[in-house]
Design a protein that fits this description.
Elements lengths: L9 E4 L3 H9 L5 E5 L2 H5 L2 H11 L3 E5 L8 H13 L4 E6 L1 H16 L17 E6 L11 E6 L4 E6 L7 E4 L9 H20 L5 H23 L4 H21 L3 H13 L3 H16 L4 H10 L9 H18 L5 H4 L3 H6 L1 H11 L11 H10 L2
Parallel strand pairs: 1-8, 2-3, 2-4, 4-5, 5-8
Antiparallel strand pairs: 6-7
Helix pairs in contact: 1-3, 4-5, 6-7, 6-8, 6-10, 7-8, 9-10, 9-15, 10-12, 11-12, 15-16
This protein binds fe (ii) ion.
């Protein structure tokens, strides 16, 4: 079966990536909208991007209001700034939220309307040039055609898509991930782990996405614990930034499955950060999915050297599941209860969450068949 595989057109990786990419920036337009958050400004990371633009005599304006996961309101305000200030390209600096916001602003700059108009449609049009500079190693948003924006009226995390949302440039410079604190390192790193393992076990996996997923999973199991315990470890940070990119490329071309489908409603209703809600779900979701894809989970186990050739696929898959549980524990992933979510409140919205999860389409990419009842049962098992 023929398959398309897409990735950012230009990728710069490794120490010095921003310096290397600087000259390119001068060819992208005359005024940039830098989409970022207050922390990036405070840490001095935004200044580094501003300096690169100044060196190239490119005008810019900073929009640093993406404080938290992006909402329709943040997108509307960013678009106003982009249009009123006569910008002609965009640079996102930050975790998944600023990068997702940049994509949504660019989509509206090209197509008009409100971002919620695009739910359930394929976004097209001639978008302005987008440059993604991730500062966390996890979301992979720099390499995907997706953006997740919360519709504040309906409390729904909208998954919006379109090949035109793929950033034109991805600058993966580990200097920016050095500042991520352990909790963010854990949540974003486990998000990347989820991307790689869901991509590999998705119904939509293809040979090229498999290559990226397996490579990512090896790096993540080796370097994520090091980056978590020792944030100053340059090698671990660099390896994790590459792993997150690889995992992003993998799931962009193979899709995610039940974990992401079930994670978004928890995030929307209980305001749990994306990577963390994934991590909370991993054990129960993979326990469910395992017997629908023993061969695929076994490959993952062998990639990270927790299973041997003498293990059956079932034995190897179970070892992978144990390894996932182990790394979640090592990275101090809380349960819903430990996080402070009220059990009764959670049970009251299981029907809505299960319906929203199914509607996103992600659970149906799981190799094992899933019904809305299965999804509800997994939500209950989290307690
Ligand atoms: Fe994710």
């Amino acid at each position: 079966m023929a398959r398309e595989f897409i990735a950012p057109g230009n990728i710069f990786t490794g120490a010095g990536a921003l310096d290397m990419a600087e000259e390119k920036l001068s060819q992208l337009g005359s005024k940039a909208l830098i989409v970022t958050d207050k922390v990036m400004v405070e840490l001095g990371n935004c200044e580094k991007v501003e300096t690169a633009l100044k060196n190239q005599k490119i005008d810019y304006i900073v929009y640093s209001e993406i404080n938290g996961e992006p909402t329709d309101t943040m997108i509307k305000n960013g678009l106003s700034l982009y249009q009123e200030d006569g910008c002609d390209f965009l640079i996102a600096l930050g975790g998944g939220s600023p990068i997702d916001s940049m994509k949504a602003i660019a989509a509206l700059a090209a197509n008009g309307g409100n971002i919620s108009d695009y739910m359930g449609k394929i976004i097209g049009g001639d978008l302005p040039t987008m440059v993604a500079i991730p500062t966390t190693a996890g979301t992979g948003s720099e390499a995907t055609q997706f953006t997740i924006i919360t519709d504040t009226e309906n409390d729904v995390k909208m998954l919006l898509k379109g090949a035109v949302l793929m950033p034109d440039y991805a600058i993966i410079d580990p200097q920016f991930t050095m500042t991520a604190p352990p909790k963010i390192t854990a949540a974003t790193g486990l998000d990347a782990l989820t991307h790689a393992s869901e991509a590999y076990t998705s119904k939509l996996a293809q040979p090229l996405s498999d290559t990226f997923a397996l490579s990512a999973i090896k790096r993540i199991f080796k370097y994520l614990p090091i980056a978590f315990h020792d944030g100053k470890n340059v090698e671990a940070r660099e390896q994790m930034s590459i792993a997150a990119l690889e995992a992003g490329i993998a799931f962009n071309n193979a899709s995610v499955t039940l974990v992401h489908g079930m994670s978004r409603p928890i995030g929307a209703l209980f305001h749990v950060a994306h990577g963390l809600s994934n991590a909370m779900l991993l054990k129960q979701c993979f326990t469910y999915a395992l017997d629908g894809a023993y061969d695929r989970f076994a490959d993952l186990a062998k990639a990270i050297n927790v299973a041997s050739d003498s293990d059956s696929d079932q034995e190897a898959s179970e070892k992978f599941l144990q390894a996932v549980v182990g790394i979640c524990d090592e990275l101090e992933t809380p349960t819903l209860e430990e996080y402070g979510i009220d059990k009764e409140e959670f049970f009251n919205v299981i029907d809505k969450m299960a319906a929203d999860a199914m509607e996103s389409g992600s659970p149906s990419n799981t190799r094992k068949a899933m019904t809305v009842e299965d999804v509800k049962e997994i939500y209950r098992k989290l307690w």
